[in-house]
Fold this protein.
Amino acid sequence: MSTGDRTSRHQPVIIITGTPGTGKSTHAQLLVEEAPIPLTHINVGELVKDHGLHEGFDEEWQSYTVDEDKLLDELEPLASAGGIILDWHTCEIFPERWADLVVVLRCDHTQLWDRLEKRGYPLKKIQENNQAEIMDVVLEEARSSYPEEIVVTLSSESMEDLERNVAAVVEWIKAWLKDRERQDGGET
C-alpha cells in the first residue's frame, strides 16, 4: 500500500476546488468550525506564497508560478496523515490517492464576475476565470483526475448555499468516519 493511501487514513483529505471567487476559503473555514473532527484548512495559494513553493511572480497574471514538485513534497506528509482540507483553484495536481472527497464549487458567471471585480482582479484575469467557469474547466479537471463517486459539484451563490454545502460535507465526514470504524473493526 502506498504512503497516504486513502484506505489507511483515519481522517479524510477533502479537496475544495473551483474557479477563483466561488467561495473555497469561506467554505473551508466554516467546515473547520463545523466538522465533527479537527480539520486543518490549507489555503494552497497562501502556502505557495508563504513557503516559497514557486518559481517567481507573474506580473501579467498577478500570481505566482507554482513549483509543483516543491508543493507536492510539502503536502505529502500532511495528506498522508489526513485531517486536512486542501483549498485551491485547481485539483488535478493532487495525487488520486490523497483525495477522499473532491468538492467543486460553482457560481453563476455574472455573480462570479462581480466577486472578482470587487477583489480588484485585472480585467484579463476576470475574463479568463469567467470563461473557465462557463466552460466547466475545474469540474472537468476533477472528473478526469478522481473517481466519479468522490467528486461532488455544489452551487455557491448564496449564504444558504454555503450553509447547506457545509452541512452536507459534515454529514459526509460522519458517514466516512463510521465507514472507517467498520473497516477497522473488520480487520481485528
